[in-house]
Design a protein that fits this description.
By secondary structure, the protein is α/β, with parallel strands linked by helices. It has one domain: P-loop containing nucleotide triphosphate hydrolases (Rossmann fold, 3-Layer(aba) Sandwich), CATH 3.40.50. The strands form 2 sheets. A 6-stranded mixed sheet has the order 6-7-8-3-9-10, sandwiched between helices. The protein has a 4-stranded antiparallel sheet with strand order 2-1-4-5, with helices on one face. Helix 6 runs parallel beside helix 7.
Length: 270
Amino acid sequence: MTRSTGLRIIQPGALPEAAAAVKVNDLNVWFGTAHILREIAVSFQEYRINCIVGPSGSGKSTLIRSINRMNDDVAGYCAKGTIHVDGKDIMSESINVAKLRQEVGMVFQKPCVFPKSISENVLFGMQDLKKLTVQERLQIVENNLKLTALWREVSHRLHDKAVTLSLGQQQRLCIARTLAVKPKVVLLDEPTSSLDPVSSRAVEELMLELKKEYTIVFVTHNIQQAQRVADHLVFMCNGGVIEQGSKQKLFHNPEKELTRKYLNEEYCDC
């Protein structure tokens, strides 16, 4: 009779199931009469890179913008369903949206730096900035620029305008600004789409480091990029979730033929 050792064997490249940091259930979104998201039910795992892929117009960006209520100000926006972040339904009318956006930070497709210095960009979202000493401010700037591997490149020019940085540096600066307010979840909406291959790889390597401390929800149109960095994968098409699961499962043993076609042939007929 064999006795269990209590050890859990994990296949190479696989990860054990993690707790869900974000749970979306029965989410429908309309802009005017256009029904953009349909009956979305999906979970995003904590301390993982949760990657959303799918053809243009499938609803990827609308979904992640819903997680921090970024769609609220868009004309004609209407949503039904629930989104739980850290156990709280952020669709509730009582939710403090400003606080939510501190807990759920977002980085967009194109770098969005402010016409301020590099250090001022890092500190921009901090509500208690006036209470901080000069030394505390500098420490926050240094810590977050180090997190995004920018400190060595810009430490000698912190008072320069952020627009003087390269696009790749600007995007990492935007991530540093997002991290400075200590979010629990980081949303990345195609953050490498406007970058060159070298800068794109730098952002990918950064994500692999950041998932040790943050839950990452990452939208990309690049299948090879998803294959490199994703832990959990969500395939969307035509406003719905077709399939979700581990990267290994969806790339090598998907349940749906639509998933296989899109991930292997980059073709979608749904």
